[in-house]
Amino acid sequence: MDSEPVMAExxxxxxxxxxxxxxxxxxxxxxxxxEAAEILKDGIRVHPEPTADPLDPLNxxxxxxxxxxxxxxxxxxxxxxxxxxxxxxxxELQEQLGISYSQVNxxxxxxxxxxxxxxxFWSSLADIYGRRIIFLTGxxxxxxxxxxxxxxxxxxxxxxxxxxxxxxxxxxxxxxxAVVMDLFFEHERGQKLGLWVLxxxxxxxxxxxxxxxxxxxSADWIQWLTAILFGVLLILExxxxxxxLYPRAYMLNHMPVDTPSGTEIEKLSQHRDDPxxxxxxxxxxxMIVNFRPVPGMRHPKPWDSVLRFILTFKYPVVVIxxxxxxxTWYWWILSIITMLPAAYVxxxxxxxxxxxxxxxxxxxxxxxxxxxxxxxxxxxxxxRNNNGVRIPEMRYPLQSMSVITFYxxxxxxxxxxxxxxxxxxxAKSGFTWSFAAQGIITFFGAVPIFAALHRWGGSLRxxxxxxxxxxxxxxxxx
Length: 478
Fold this sequence. Notes:
Strand content: under 5%
Number of helices: 16
Number of strands: 5
Structural class: mainly alpha
Helix content: 55-70%
């Protein structure tokens, strides 16, 4: 691993005084670290630790934060929208491209493969050059690929375009979640992550509804509408999404909150400093399109996302949790979506699209009443009963980019694999037995897995130890 010291200069107009800082000062370690006040929320220490910097994303206005969150949700909506919006047009695609139902089912698998590969490429780059440039580049690739899918005249060209659609939109998972972590404190994240998950769930289910009606024009116009949506997203990202990757350890060392320990977080707005006091370029002061590593922190190598993905297998809590969700739960949802046209072939694409309304309403109900604020409330209550200390078993966090990447890769690999086996399984066993078996697997697989993690997760974490990496603003190994 690279251990070269981080160097920066702080220049003043008169006297041309130059201040340099070494690696430990940049990270706020050892003697270079300024002891910060303890900031609380309902008597529990907040995380991440805030600064007095107005350029700190944690200190931005609620309107600005939620505007950025809406853009992140938009991209994550497109994450699954591109995959399923073509489902009602399967009969037209079969005829247009001269392919079987199994082959047209693979057109859902291929963008999922792009969604699985993408995080391994984008994640480290987002920790080097920032979130904004990755969002812009990925959306531009997805926009171009969607145009290619709309114009494709053969199966191979269509499949290539579908892969790059998924590859381009894949930052919505890893980088998008990192943006949410940049913007909000841990005690706020249940609600925000609930909205973020709602985006991917609604994209999954709204896609076929919209696609069914657009199919009245043509199957190609499903892609043209998707291209328009990507074009609008690209404009919003450029205009309203600033950089959120922030050199927190360095800024905690140079601009800590000047307030007594034990101060409640609601009172912090009166403790803001002058951002010009520290000349390090950060967040909104970076270039509009930044091609240089974000200063003030150490960065991973571009290939570290792949290395850390492999090393994450050392941590059984992460592996069991991710595999349990992806392969006993998520793939079952994909099975329903991809097989719906075959189950109700007698209905028009428009009616088939409307069949997804029940799934959509169930998703909205669960997100509103069973996650979000309820999750935040339960975690806070559990923490109070644990002497004010939050532990992962209260709500498994996806705070490290490596864990986010691990989750996203296997989530989409399960989506990639599903269309290849569900059609033959259904053909051999019928709809009743194939889907009843998946329901049994989900209930008797997922529920015990997560109950066991809740009970013994702490012991597993103690045996495995902690990784030597987290996020670049706190990284101690690179």
